[in-house]
Amino acid sequence: MSKSDPPSSVRRGATRRNSVPGRQPAGYYRDTAESLGPDVNIGYLVKQLQSSFNRMMELHMAPLGLTAMQWRPLVLIRYRNVNTPAELSRHSNIDTGAMTRALDRLEAKQFISRQRCSDDRRSVRVELTKAGNEVAEQILPAVAATLNTHLRGFSKDEVELFISMIDRMLANGEEPVE
What we know:
Strand 1 (112-116) and strand 2 form a beta hairpin. The protein has a two-stranded antiparallel ribbon. The chain has a single domain (38-174), classed as Arc Repressor Mutant, subunit A (Orthogonal Bundle). By secondary structure, it is mainly alpha-helical. The termini are far apart. It is built from eight helices and two strands; from the N terminus they run H-H-H-H-H-E-E-H-H-H.
């Protein structure tokens, strides 16, 4: 994959989210402990899934000298052309302080460099170094392996249905509550 050619999931992501305007909430959950228990609470289960992804990615990233917080900025810079600390924070869903600390560590490892913009000295651009590009190229295979491990036993249709359901939930969450 070239730097200018994001994964198909990235290209599709923005256009897939379809929510049906005016639809009422599903009403699946009730305000009872049984209804919201950890074995059926989608929010809790999604958080557990994210934790499982992170644990597996930590194992894949350790030989590269990276943590879960450090590999994401490298991928965003390399494959999504995200190149300011604020944009990296926004795309990673983490606060700017945490991103600054991650960038400090990546800079200490000589994977990135930060350059002041010539037209606005307050603005900083983050660039991958040669070593950063080399390590970034090793990350996507680990991401694919992690996702494929978690999707073991799912058919292609099930994976696509799962993605479409998540997209719908995300779109629903972006709409104002009625």
